[in-house]
Amino acid sequence: MLLDSIHNYKPSEALVEEERNKKLNTYDKGFLLLIALYFVSGLIISTFTSTWFTALKFSLPLIIVYLGCYYFVPKRNFARFVLIFILFLFQVQFAYQLSGAFYSQFYYFLTLTALIVFQRTRFIITYFLFIHIFYASIAFFIFNGLLTNITISNNSYIDLFFNPKETLNLLVLTTLHLAICVFLVNYFKKQTYSSIKQKLFIENELNIDHSISLAKEIASGNYNVNIDAGNDELTNHLVKIKENILEFKETESIQTWKNTGIRTISELLLTINSLDKLCSKVLREIVTYLKSQYGAIFVVESVDNEEKLVLKSSYAGSKRQKKTLSLDISEGLVGEAVIRKEMNLIKEVPESYHLIGSGLGEASPKNVLILPLIAKNETIGVLEIASFKDFLDYELDFLQQVSSNLAVSILSLKADKDIEAVTRG
What is the pTM of this model? Predict the structure, then answer.
């Protein structure tokens, strides 16, 4: 899928040319070294041919001109055409120093090969034409007796350009070399375009730098960093990774919260032996831990030989509610929870159902949760919690676990009380 996306990606010509020029600018530095090499070569040749003056007269101005173009001409293509002309003049110098075209062919082939890196066919052809027009002109002038005072071997030019066999060999060799160079120019041009396209796709479509920055933020623990889902797969994967991490952290946080609350209440259940005190302490802990506003615990007890729901503890109830000490088993929603043995979450609470008392007055809750306290398949009481906010799913799960533990403790304390009563009787 990614390879198909890269293949179908069509960057703008301006972007491609900008990236290509960045590559070519690095090659310009390489030609500085090539010109320095030619300068040194000219000096070395002059030690064998006594052409010191010619080497310095040609080489130094050429180097100065190219350095001026390299550093002060903003149009790089113009500077490169100047470079081609300078390389041609170096070839003229070598032809003069070596007294003939044949011995200077090495520099011609080296220069033509080096120009491949610019990936411009017109550069190759321009240099090719410069060289062969120059050699053809020299041969013509020598053949017609116009260069009689030049200190080079006349026969070398005559043989190369007017001997049919030598001429054919030269044409075949140079044409073959030119064809290879043009082929390589186009081949490397395609390869460069492919690499530039991949680079632009990664930078612009995958937005790799931005994705790396986001990945670093996530790796450092900054999970709140803003990641907008984009069109690239990498950013979308980062969004999913962030969501998975946040989900894991949230799950871990919720589990820690639940475990801490259950452990705290379990410690109360293990250390308190009084039923009334147990209900009071546990209820206060539950209500404050949930950040709720009201709570009550009813326990099934026999009152005048009749089972009733006796209010054992209440938290922040109104004065009217605190006077309600017991209810019939089937009375109201609390009694219904005993009969049905099911949790009942009331989200649309009537205004008159409960009033939560505070120093500022009384108010109706938004949600009321009624949980039957069941132990050994027997309802032994009811836990009632009211709040101004909605109960979350993990809070309901927490209350169900706590209510189960509370029911077992209440049943155990009631059994101990019954045994104590029988013992006294």
Answer: 0.51
